[in-house]
Task: inverse folding
């Protein structure tokens, strides 16, 4: 006999002395999407969810903290794209990339869209970001190479969204010229700032 039962709890009395109770528990396999997409190289974009946020790429280099809205990357990445898709998170997520072991942080282009603050730090004799860098965010951008190389080898495009504090490019001694330019996009200026930072 089939019964279409939708109650969360069913009690069946078998005899006066025996009662069977079935408690149904809802199991949710659905992943909660945090509204951030990460793409490595020309790969398929990866949605950051409650199932992968602690180890987004599966190699312990990239993690997201939903409590502080911080996406942290440690190590050397290929071409990297970070997109804040969720309107609730736009201009709230901090992106922090570093390579404590030394060397390039992003070997290829770096695109960050819709973030709040963006920080790329490391110590490299070559550029920290080895390619075109395009950043759209609401807060300051700090690209700091504590080694002798440049912060960026390629074109740096920085769009304050909607307005922002100045950003800093800090580079090594042989890139002092690029660093001394201190390209600044202020609230009054707005718009897109484009600067070519020459490789040393």
Result:
């Amino acid at each position: 006999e089939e019964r279409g039962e939708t109650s969360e709890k069913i009690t069946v009395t078998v005899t006066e002395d025996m009662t069977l109770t079935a408690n149904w528990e809802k199991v949710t396999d659905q992943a909660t999407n945090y509204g951030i997409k990460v793409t490595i190289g020309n790969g398929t974009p990866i949605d950051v969810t409650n199932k992968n946020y602690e180890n987004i790429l599966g190699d312990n280099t990239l993690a997201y903290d939903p409590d502080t809205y911080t996406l942290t990357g440690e190590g050397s990445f290929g071409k990297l794209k970070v997109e804040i898709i969720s309107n609730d998170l736009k201009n709230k997520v901090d992106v922090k990339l570093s390579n404590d072991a030394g060397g390039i942080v992003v070997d290829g282009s770096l695109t960050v869209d819709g973030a709040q603050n963006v920080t790329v730090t490391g110590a490299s004799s070559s550029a920290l970001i080895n390619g075109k860098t395009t950043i759209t965010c609401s807060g300051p951008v700090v690209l700091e190479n504590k080694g002798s190389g440049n912060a960026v080898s390629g074109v740096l495009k920085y769009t304050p969204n909607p307005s922002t504090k100045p950003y800093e490019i800090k580079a090594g001694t042989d890139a002092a010229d690029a660093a001394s330019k201190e390209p600044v996009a202020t609230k009054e200026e707005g718009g897109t700032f484009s600067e070519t930072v020459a490789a040393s």
Summary: The radius of gyration is 24 Å. The CA atoms of residues 170 and 180 lie 8 Å apart. The first strand starts at residue 9 and ends at 15. The helical segments are 176-180.
